[in-house]
Design a protein that fits this description.
Helices cover 30% and strands 14% of the residues. The chain is α+β, with helices and mostly antiparallel strands. β8 and β9 form a beta hairpin. α4 runs antiparallel to α7 and α7 runs antiparallel to α10. The chain is globular, with a radius of gyration of 19 Å. It binds adenosine-5'-diphosphate and magnesium ion.
């Protein structure tokens, strides 16, 4: 396999001890590591090079370049990059708390005060990325990691594998990368960054019910290890969707101008907020197509059973983020000014 970076001569094993598995995505395994020199713990994202063709690998390299260049308290830092003949290794800041929603599931429901803190972290990270001309494009619970398993904690956005710098955008506003142009209808082979694994029919059949012991177990978890399934756009011709059903914005599904621009990230963050407050998915379906069709229409409910205890300020923020028209949707910097994010001390500290 060809070398992709200029670092192919350094061996990761010489610098880090690699240990137990922390998590898994469709294309990567993330393991614990320890810096041999400083004994500092890290996370190492191990990416198999032969899972990608050249074009796909460009995106992996893009992730690496983007992540190395950015520095913000709410974005997982990339410390270093290594490469062997078969693998690419990203040495990441270790987030001991793991995925935010696993944490929330074990803690029961959050207070509005804590939900607001979490959301402020997410939106601050997005404000920074958007200010740098970068869209994350895959905001969802598995990609929001926590610094600790106990409060107080901070959240950080991870997995910029689909991130897109709109500085080099071709201007048509269409989803123009990973598999977006793969119009041949095939989806049986690898569907790497499409994340289509995340809305498997069996998993997405219903909103998470409040009787469920793991209230925050995301439907997307079930299909995680099975990177298969279709995820064609809802009405905009062939090709695969960029993003994850349930989280992806209507304009992305409908391939409207402005798709995959900063507002699309804000929609996905709005879905995360909806889930934090209610324990349910706003857009769901028995299969991807149904899930995507509901999202495309933009219609979602706020049943009194979950929402009667939620404050009007929180509801207004959800509505501002889940606004179908991307030009009217709250931007990250506007959301940070919203009272529910700006004044957490006024919010309830008791669990929802
Ligand atoms: P993929 O691109 O394949 O989705 P991710 O970068 O999202 O891979 O990582 C997969 C999983 O590994 C995450 O969902 C999380 O559980 C875990 N993980 C990723 N990065 C870290 C980190 N820096 N610290 C701790 N766990 C991590
Ligand atoms: Mg991921």
């Amino acid at each position: 396999t060809r070398a992709l970076t200029a670092v192919a001569t350094r061996r990761i094993e010489d610098a880090y001890e690699l240990g137990s598995r922390l998590g898994e995505g469709a294309f990567a395994t993330v393991v614990r590591g320890v810096d041999r020199a400083t004994r500092e713990p890290v996370a190492v994202k191990v990416i198999k090079k032969d899972a990608f063709d050249d074009r796909e690998m460009e995106f992996v390299v893009r992730e690496t370049a983007i992540m190395k260049a950015i520095c913000h308290p709410n974005i997982v830092a990339v410390r270093d990059v290594y490469e062997s003949r078969s693998h690419l290794y990203l040495v990441l800041e270790l987030l001991e708390g793991g995925e935010l929603f696993d944490l929330v599931a074990s803690a029961g429901s959050l207070s509005e005060q804590r939900a607001s803190e979490v959301m402020r972290g997410v939106v601050s990270g997005l404000a920074y990325l958007h200010g740098q001309g970068i869209c994350h494009r895959d905001i969802k619970p598995e990609n929001i990691l926590a610094t600790s398993k106990t409060w107080p904690l901070q959240v950080k956005l991870s997995d910029l594998g689909m991130a897109h710098s709109h500085l080099d955008d071709d201007g048509d506003g269409r989803a123009d990368s990973f598999f977006a142009d793969n119009d041949d209808g095939s989806n049986s082979s690898a569907t790497p960054r499409s994340s289509s694994r995340s809305c498997e029919p069996s998993a997405a059949s219903a909103p998470v019910t409040s009787g469920n012991t793991s209230q925050f177990r995301m439907p997307s978890d079930a299909g995680r290890s099975a990177p298969s399934g279709t995820c064609g756009g809802g009405g905009g011709g062939g090709g695969h969707l960029i993003g994850t059903p349930g989280y992806v914005a209507p304009e992305v599904i409908r391939r409207l101008p402005g798709a995959n621009a900063p507002p699309s990230d804000m929609w996905s963050a709005g879905v995360v907020l909806y889930i934090l407050l209610s324990g349910k998915m706003p857009f769901y379906g028995r299969n991807d197509a149904e899930c995507l069709a509901r999202t495309a229409s933009g219609a979602y409910a706020m049943p009194a059973r979950e929402w009667s205890r939620v404050s009007p300020a929180a509801v207004s923020l959800v509505r501002g983020m889940l606004c179908v028209d991307p030009s009217k949707r709250l931007t990250a910097s506007a959301a940070l000014q919203h009272p529910w994010l700006a004044s957490p001390s006024t919010l309830s500290a008791s669990p929802l």
